[in-house]
Amino acid sequence: MEHTDPATLLAWHIAMGADEAIAGECVDRFTAPATTLQPIAAPAQSQNAHAATPQPKPGGPRRVEAKPVQAISGAGQAAAESAAASCNTLDDLEAALKAFDGGLLKRSAKNTVFADGTRGAALMVVGEAPGADEDRMGKPFVGASGQLLDHMLAAAGMGRDKDVYISNVVPWRPLGNRTPDQAVITMCLPFIRRHIELAEPKVVLMLGGVSAKALLGTEDGITRLRGRWKELDLNGQKIAALPAYHPAYLLRQPHLKGLAWRDLLAVKRKLQSL
Ligand code: URA
Fold this sequence. Notes:
The model is unreliable at 32-71 (pLDDT under 50).
């Protein structure tokens, strides 16, 4: 095979979403005996099911059960609604989220990524979901897109260390950095809505289509939504909210940084006017 530079291959696997070890040992599929790659024969009729189950050959690859990609088998939206509604402080909400049965997504994550930044800040930034760096560190936006976000905020005279509070719609890392599916977003929505309510920002900046669509309850795409002021209604509490491009998207489409900068300045002006 050409192009077998290990670093390139590793980067390609990560980009394809193959970023998790699913077995304790490496298996060289090129040298594995051909018989182990054959489809497993249907078990013969038997009183004893175990007798008919094909056993792995010693030395052959271990069979690994396929894992559902992002199934949600957790407590669901109704339980999320009631857990979120019962919280009266951000600490309560963080504890409730950590105790919540978020299904396979939560079980596959290292951390429940709750928030970072300054509680009580006038600006709350809401992203999509943690990536690998955020999952490892337990904080939102600490990877490459977080660094871009921090630079942009700093250029506008803001920062999470003083006047910005940051969270995500989904607090658990989707496997393989996929876009969280709708069932997961629906389950997590009561928590992020309550999170905003309790954080009481004056302005919410929704980064990316997942965040904007979930919080605004719309199917419109981010290209149409960005830069247009909306209002979130959280149990009667009205909060100005602006959809904007996600920094991860800006890293791939740097020519859009000008529009993102314009949106950030609009946020700054709005904050000064309130
Ligand atoms: N992207 C997000 O939407 N949130 C994070 O925390 C990191 C990357």
